[in-house]
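Below is a filled-in request sheet from our internal design queue. Each sheet records the structural input a requester submitted and the sequence that came back. We keep these sheets so that new team members can see what a complete request looks like end to end.

REQUESTER: design group, bay 2
PRIORITY: normal
MODE: inverse folding
CHAIN LENGTH: 207
BACKBONE (tokenized):
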């Protein structure tokens, strides 16, 4: 099956350069960097052609939830994406399955969710490296800190809150950051698990 050789060859070419997190969202202590879908397309497009790999997407299991925000209705979409990585040499393929989730106040939530599913399928199949401290073993903490961290929100939950924060207006972000500072919360990652639902609801109310 040629597809696995081709995927491996593309991985080898990406291993030294990766795709850096050049995009920024949020401000101050609550800002974060990410790799956008355009970064993935621009980097992978010529490599997919070079290594003769075709990606064919399929989407299903779409769910939509409406949530009331301060400025109107927010549409929360979750969608299942199946991506066939096909060799144009012999037709062999590998299928990756990911889920995409996104929110939008207009008609873009589904498109965003599909893009996220595609992006993370590529990250996982091609093992695309990035820059920065993303290795959980790269940071060493004192024993007391490790005990405290077991009660903190997960990275996925932190990213979810940051995404909501990034979609707020400037006024909404200022209100959110002022409230976090008032509560002695220097960064989202230091939020305790028991407070996650309340903070999520609070941020959505500022939308």
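RETURNED SEQUENCE:
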């Amino acid at each position: 099956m040629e597809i696995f050789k081709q995927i491996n060859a593309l991985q080898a070419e990406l291993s030294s350069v990766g795709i850096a997190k050049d995009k920024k969202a949020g401000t101050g202590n609550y800002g974060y960097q990410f790799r956008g879908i355009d970064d993935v397309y621009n980097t992978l497009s010529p490599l997919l052609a070079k290594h003769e790999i075709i990606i064919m997407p399929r989407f299903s299991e779409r769910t939509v939830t409406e949530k009331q925000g301060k400025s109107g209705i927010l549409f929360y979409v979750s969608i299942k994406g199946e991506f066939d990585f096909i060799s144009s040499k012999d037709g062999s393929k590998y299928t990756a399955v990911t889920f995409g989730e996104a929110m939008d106040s207009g008609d873009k939530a589904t498109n965003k969710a599909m893009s996220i599913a595609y992006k993370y399928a590529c990250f996982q199949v091609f093992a695309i490296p990035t820059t920065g401290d993303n290795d959980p073993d790269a940071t060493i903490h004192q024993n007391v800190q490790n005990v405290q961290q077991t009660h903190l929100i997960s990275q996925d939950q932190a990213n979810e809150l940051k995404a909501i924060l990034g979609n707020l207006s400037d006024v909404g972000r200022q209100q959110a950051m002022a409230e976090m500072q008032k509560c002695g919360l220097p960064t989202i990652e230091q939020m305790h698990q028991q407070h996650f639902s309340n903070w999520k609801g609070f941020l959505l109310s500022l939308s």
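SHEET NOTES:
- Confidence is low (pLDDT under 50) at residues 131-149.
- Residues 57 and 196 are 33 Å apart (CA to CA).
FILED BY: M.R.
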